[in-house]
Each structure stands twice: as structure tokens, then as C-alpha cells.
Amino acid sequence: MAERQDPATLQNKVLSESLRLSQVLSGEPGPAKILQEVGQSIKEALGYKVIVLSLYENDIGAFKPLWMESVDPDTGTELLTSPNPLIRTQLLTEDFLRSGSYIIKADHPVWEGMKASRYLPGLGEEALNGSGDVILNPIFSSGTAMIGLIMVVVKDAETDTDQVEYLSYFSRLAGCALERGLLYLQREENSNFNRILIQTVEKLEKISDPGHFWQTIAENIGTALKGFELVVSIANQEGSYYVHPLVLRDGKQMDGLTSVDGAWLDRVAEQGPQTELITVHPEKPAVIKMGWPLEIEKESLGVLTVTGLNSGEMDRPTADFLGMMATQIALALFRVRSVDEWTSRKEVLEAYIKNIDDAVLIVDSIKRIVFVNNSAQQLTDLRQGGIDKLPLNQSDKEWLSTALDDVSKGVTKEAGKKIIIKDSYCSIGIKGFFDEKKYTGSIIKIHSLKQEGLEYFKELAGMVAALEDVELLPQILLKAVRHFVDFDAGSILFRERGDSFRFLASQGTMIDHDPDMTFNLITGLAEAAINEGRTLGLAGKEGSLAEGLGISGMEKPLAGARSVLVTPLIFKGQNTGLMVLSKKDQAAYPETNVAMIDELSTGLSKILWQIGVASKLKQENALRTKLYEIGFASGSVLQVGSLLNLMIRTIAKELKIDEMGIYFFDEVLGEWNGKAIQSTGKNGGFLELMKSSGIKLDYERLSEIKEITATVIARGEPEIVPDLKSDPRFLSAGHYQGLRSGLWLPLKLKDKPIGAISALSKQISYFGHDDLTLLQELSPLVTFALRSAVLYEEIRREGSRVGAIINSMPEGLLMVDSHFKVIMSNEGFEGLWGLKQTIRPGAALQEGILSLLTNNLANPRGLIDFFQDCAISTTGVVTPVELELKNGKHLKISSFPVEELDRPRTGLVILSQDITTEHQIAELRQEFVGMLSHDLRNPLAAIIATLELALDGSLGELNENQNQFLGNAMNDSRRMLEMLNDFLDGYKYDAVEIKLEKINFDIAQLISKLVADFSPLARERNIELLQETSPTITITGDEGKLARVISNLLSNALKFTPRGGTIILKSAERTDSVEIAVSDTGEGISAEDKEKVFEKFYQVEKRRHGRKTGTGLGLPLCKKLVEAHGGKIWVESQVGKGSRFIFSLPR
Description:
The structure is a single chain. It is built from 33 helices and 40 strands. With about 1150 residues, it is α+β, with helices and mostly antiparallel strands. A hairpin with a 4-residue loop joins β24 and β25 (about 670-675). About 30% of the residues are buried. It catalyses: ATP + protein L-histidine = ADP + protein N-phospho-L-histidine.
């Protein structure tokens, strides 16, 4: 709905948007950009909410939406891709021409038709079925031709005539811009298409070879047909469509063998140019399909078919261009038809197969080669002759001859096989063609599997970086090899350290193996293949090949094999692995298979190297992750011994180290510590040596010891020993027996060596630079974990002492973090609450613990509210709560925040105190007070009443002695009653619970009422009581309790103001508060007394004159009530001049 605007504002907005449009449309924008900017201006200036701007398509006589606002997204897509077929110019043109705009009311006859269209549902059901108008405003060109449409929905309001006029103004602006933009686009498109057509015709006039003709068309018009598929279908004289010499998809030339819709071709050939929408996929919009007949002198030569690859229409310039191109193609076909039928067919076939990458041959019905393309000529070295001249082995020649016979006789339509041509592994396919069921020849297509294999492995190599599961890729590689070489069982072995291998992938009988098994290279065929750098084969009896292969442990994988191939996978001069293929046939693999595998091995080797790098990175990352996890655990749950054992076993397992040790000097304990995993070592080791020598972390003394671990720590430098037997330092070291190589690395803290890592292997030269680099990277993690574990043990020892102190507390303590997970609790907490199970650290308060606590309470509501207050409190301090357990025990629960540096609240301490004794005392006191109030005060009051009756003569006349004795009794009774009341008032003050019932009220009116109430008493004492307040002061508070405060202040003022004095009650409004003041002209209060007047039971009069005038609870009660309102109270006074009591309340 557009909001009605005053004329001046509307005019200014239209002017502003007109200036903006003149700037943004000053160039030569397209129709979509023009309608978008005009639509935005209509929205901003006129305020319409639902707007659709469409462009008129002359070809289909319908409006196509190009911009919309506030249209349902689901149907908006359909609006943008499907033009509206119902709202056409002939429906509304007369009204448009007559009024310039057309307003459709609910009763208009065209309304129902519009509802049924695809166009309007996108505007929403409310726009169609509710009250309101739909405004249709045409966009005309300068020649009064309709080129667009503006549609606006006006909801729940009458259409504003001024806005409609301005809407027509914007439509005129849009018309001018669209006309200029469309002319520019049409001029550009026509110019481009004309240029392409002229260039194509000029080139065709110089070409006599039909094959070059089709290639020329494809090269010239391909760029102009992006988003379309073009097919040329050639007909013979009988009208059957059998070949498509030109197929372009999205501008690229495709294989000519494609399917054709015969009914479509017949209709185009008989009825002329055709257009229809077709559905390619049920879930995608329909696409346009157009066809033009290829005719010369009314003779049908074929059909040109163009199909859109995307939804949408074909513009007029493109359609005109294709129509003219159809004429040029027809002229060329006429020249093709001028030759004899076979020559024509051969030339057409040659036209699309000549430049195909695969080798293609055409043979006639007597098996003579009549055509070969360039690829076939290079592969066979033939141009013509019989098929027996092809470079095939005898068995393949016999198969080819038999296959052609079967195709010619109709036994089969097609035939295919894998063959060897000039040492190249290829696939061959045969397809015959017939004329009126008469066999006329066949086309032979030969596809090189070598190139396919290389391309395939090139693609697989690119997968290594993206494929997370690198263990899966070798299986894919092995399956790819089967595509080129037949085998019964196969495996890819990855070379690890030294001469050891492990399975990466396997198929057939080689699958049945231990995945953790290691295979070692021994003298045999595999070693020879690695040394020579080529594939070698071996054939023999079943069970004899494993020994000849020269790989230990291959007996079971090669069970049943009689022929084997082993291929070394070498990349950058290094052997990365082996591929072993076997079959049950005893015949050796053909040399062609061997050559094929050698050609593929380069790609396989590179991929295997990439797999090795990826596996190594994965292994190293896994090791880093595990050490990080261990390092974090070291600061919480692991002891030093457990930590050392876990780190050593983790590193040794990942790096396949036979023996390993980690040693460090523990500065806290002042001794060497460490651990090692070793199969030998009974004759001593580094720790035993340090213990026996008594050496601490003394680098000079360590350097004097002829022991490599001590030397590495002293020097602070790593060392790799490739052969322990050739190093004199190890000849006498019994704990190194059976080990061949080692690596030592210092552990440093702040560049200071504090220990070392030792790694040992039973293989010679096992450790290299990569191992050293990895361990150097990991050593800070090891140092950090060890340091954390040592500090944690020290903290744990200190924590044990603190824990003993906490457990000795009589109070119950529960500490939780900011997420209410338990950090710790003491035994007192579990004892006070009567818990039968220990509360463990890390347990969530709300998951189990809270229910244990509430189950022991007589009423759990108080505890639940307490924890809820703790959860929402920003400080962590909430009002303590007293709870009663089911066993009669009473607890007081309070909270305190746990604070750290720069972190104001990281947790809470929940303290439980046993107040059962205090509660029992309070109950006794309550009973005692009740006894005083009922059993003492009431009888005393009755005695006083009786004495008053006797003294006033109501019980008879009294003599002088009687009157004196009864008067004394009356005075003593009153003093006793006053003492009793003072006691009870003091108790009530302590027990009073401030519960405010706040309302909005006029405190000025309350002041006036209280002044009126106290005025008689003031007049009786000859005191002037005055009031100075504003007429109205509204505040929020408990009116009754504030009345009590003012009454107490007035009562005190009357009590201490002498006769003839003055009392003034004032109120004043401040910025954020209200102040009430009671001033008198009494004796005043000294500076010493001013500090104590609000203390309980303090009485200025008693201290000054020795007489008591009250309980001393009035002012303390005033202070208590004012502060409960969030205010404050104070006194200003001078001795001899009077006092002024003021209290302030927030507004």
C-alpha cells in the first residue's frame, strides 16, 4: 500500500528521483538495468510496495518481467524466467491509449483471467483477493509502440490520482531510455551477426572440400551460439535422416553421432520454420527449440535445429542470423548432393571424422579401406588397401575379419575388442551402415588406451592434494591399471625405511594379508627390477614364484599364481614402491603389456610419491596432535612417570623406533628423572650412571663422561650415529647390544639443556635429517609437558595441604566454575547435607547434584531460587537463604565470587552453615516474647485499668492513704508496662521484615494529610506547624511506610520543640530524586550525637538530661524504611538553634 503524501513532498521526491535517473541512465545501459533503476525511483518517490516492471517481447506477444519488488521469492523465479502469455497488447491497448494507465477494480471482467495466469500469483493471494486496485501503466516508444509495462498493486486504500500521474511520468522516462537502449543493443547485435555471416560466406566460397566447410562454420559461428546446441541433419533423396555433419554445443564442436527426433525433422521440412518449448528435465524449466528447413529450389536437403541449453527465449537478431545461416548451409549441401551417392556419403563422413583424435577408418562391403583420418594414418601407416595390411598380430587380424562378416550379415550391429597395434594398447570398435537394408560398408574406430591411461593418472595425481583419505587412492590406481592390463591379483607396495615395504592396495588373492605386516627386499626379481628401472616378468609353477620374486612374506599373496610382473615405481631417482601383478595363467605376460605398464609407471610413481608425502604429513600431524593432547593432560591428570611412558610409546610407535628414552633433570626434587623402553639394558643406562656418579645438571662434569646422552646434554647439540658398531663410544656399552643406529636430541628450557631424547633402531642408518627435524619440532612439546607435569605434582602436593585445611572446616564448601560445574567440595558439605556419595570435580550442578540436595529439603523452592539468583547475578553475591532439611537440621546458604586477575568472576563458592542451634534459640526467644506479651503484659494492663477505675472513684470513694497507695501502685505498674513495651519494640525492630508494596502516589497530598493530623497537637502545645510543598509530587513507593517515616519525624519535632516554637515540613523536587525535610526550632543536636541518632536504642534526651523519652527505635526505623526504598536520610543541626531531618527518595 502506498501512503498518501502531501503534494509538495511528492513533487520534491519525483524531482529528486528524476535527476538521479538522468545521471544513471546517461550512458547506454541494457533494458534490465533501465527497468531496475526506474523501479527503484517509483518505490522511493511514490511509495508503492508491490511493483513489477516488464519488457514486451514482440516474438511471442507477451510481457517478460525484468525487475520486481515485494514479490514472493518462490514464484518470483518463475516470473523472471517465464513470460506472461495472457496479458497481451490486444487485451488492454484501447484503454491504455485512451487513459495512459489502466486501473483494474475487483469487478473488472479481465480480473479473473489475470488471476488464472502465471503472472499474478507471484504478487500474493492478498493482493488478488483483498480490497485494492492493480494499476497497469504501459511503456511506449516514440512511435507509440508498446515496449514495456509497469504494474503496481495498491492495497487497502483508494488510488491517489497524483501518484498515478507521476507513475505515467516515470513510464515516459522509462520509454525514452528503453528505446535508446534497445536500439543500441539491436544495432550492436545485428552488426556483430552480419560481420560473422559475411566472414563465413567469404571463407566458404574459397573451400571445395565439404569437410573443411563444416569446420569453417564451426570455427566462425561457435562464439555466437553460447548457450545453444546446433545440429545440422542431412537427408538423402528418399528423405531418411542418417548423419549430422555439424553438432555445436555451447559453441564447441561435438561428435556427429547424435540422436534425432524424426517427427520434429519431418514437421520442419514440410511446414517450414518451427518453434516449441521442450522439457529436458522434469525439475528444470522448459527450453526453446527452433528449426529451419535447408531447401534449394523447393527441394528439402535437411534441417537446422537449435535448442536452448538454458531456460528463456531466443532474441530476434540471433533468430535472423540462424535463418540466413540455414540458407548458406543449404547451398553447400546442394553442392554435396551433386556428386554420386557413395561419394556424398563418404565426404560427409570424412567431414566430421577427419579431425577426430581417435583413429577412424572406413571400409567398403568387400573389406577395402576407402578412407583414413590423420590419426589412423599415423597409427597404421596406411591410406588404402585391405584390412590384412593393418599392423595387427595374426589373432587380432582374424578377429577383425570375422567381426566385419558378422556386422555385414546382421549377426551383430557393433563389435569391439582390446588389441595391440605397433606396441600400443588400444580398443577397437566396428559399426556398419546400410542402404535400404543393403550393407555398404563399416566404420572402424581405434582408441589409444595409452593416452587415456596417462590422462587418467594425471587426473588422479591432482586428487592426492584434495583427497583426505590417501589410503583410498592406491585402490583407485590399482583398479585403473586393470583397465589396461588383465591380472587376477595385484598389489601396490609402499617403500618405507631401508628395504622394508608395506601394502598400500591389493586386489584378488593378495587382499588376504596382515595389514600391519612388513615385507623385506631380498635377492630376486624385485631387486633386479629396481636396479634396472623397468618392469620384469616371471612365469613358473604354482607356489614357486614367491622365492623368485625376492620379497619376503609374499608366499600367501602369490598363492595360485603362475605368472607375475613386478614394476619399480621410481620418482626423482628414488624408489617409492613396487607394483606386483599376477595371474593364474602360466603364459608370460606379453611384451606389449610390459611396455604399457612401463609407460604408466611414471604417473603411478609420482602419485605414490605424493601419497608417501601426504601419509608422512598425516603421520606427523597425528603425532603432533597426540603430543599436544598429552601436553594438556600433563597439567591436570598425569603424573610424571605416566607422562614419560605415554610420550615414549606414542613417539616410538609412530616413528617405528625400537628403543627410546626421555631423560631430564627435575629441579624441584634436585635429581635426574626419566624413562626408557628397551628390550635390553640390563647392564645399566643413563639414569643408573647419573645415580652412581652423583652428577647433577653440571655441564662440565657431564662432558667428562664418555656416554653419548650426557655428551649431547653437555654440548646442547643433537647427534646422529648411523652405525653404532663402528663408533668406539658404543663398543663397551652392553645396553646397546643388538642396536645398529641411533639419534640423540637435547631437551631445552629457555635455550638451556635440561635433558635429552634418545631413539635407537636395529637397522643400520635408520635415522635421517627428516627424523631429526621432526624430533626437534616436537622437543618443545615434550619439554612443556614434562615441565607442566612436574609443576602440577608440586601444586598437587601443596593442594593436598590446602585440601586438609578445607576439609577441617565445620562449614560446608562447594566451589563451582562460571558454568556451574564442580571444582571442589569439602567433607563438611557432604556431611551437612547428609549426602551418601562423593561429589566429583567436573560434575554439572544441574545434572544430578541439585536433585541430591533438594531431595533432603523439606521445601526445595528456596534452594532453587537461590541458585537461579546466582546464575543471573553479575557479582555472584546474592541474599543468603535459610533452609530446613527433612531431618530437622537448619542450614544457611550464602555465596561468594571467585575472582582472578583481569577476570572479575570465574566461579562461585557456595557456603553452607549449620544454624540449627541459632534457630532453636530464636524459637525459644519467640516463645519467651510471646509469654511476655500474653502472660505478663495483658495482666499488667488489666491491673492498670483496675487501678484507674479505683483512682477515679468509679469503685467508690477512697481516703487519702488509699489514694496515695493506689497512686504509687499505678505509677509502678505504668513504669513496668513501659519497660515491657520497650523490650517488645526492640525485638520487633530486629524481627521486622521490610516488604514494600510500591504504588504511584502523590506525596505532596500525603504531607498535607499528615500536617492536618498533627496540627491539633501542635496547637495544644502552642507550636506553629507549617507546610511548604509543591502542589503535586508523584513518586513510586510504599505510601504507608513513608507515612510512618514522616509521622516519626513530626512526632520527634513536636517532642523536642518548646512552646512558641516552629516546625516546617518541606518537599522539593530534584533532577532524579525528591527531598522531604522536617525542621524545628528546638534544642538542637550536638556533633557527637548526630553520628549516633540513627543507632538503635540511642536517646539524646536521656544522655543529656538523664530522662528517658522513648525507646530509641524511631529514627533507626526511619532509616531502615528509607533505605529499603533506595533512598538515604541524614540530619543537620546546631545546638540551641534546632534540627533539620532530611530524607531523599529516587523518582
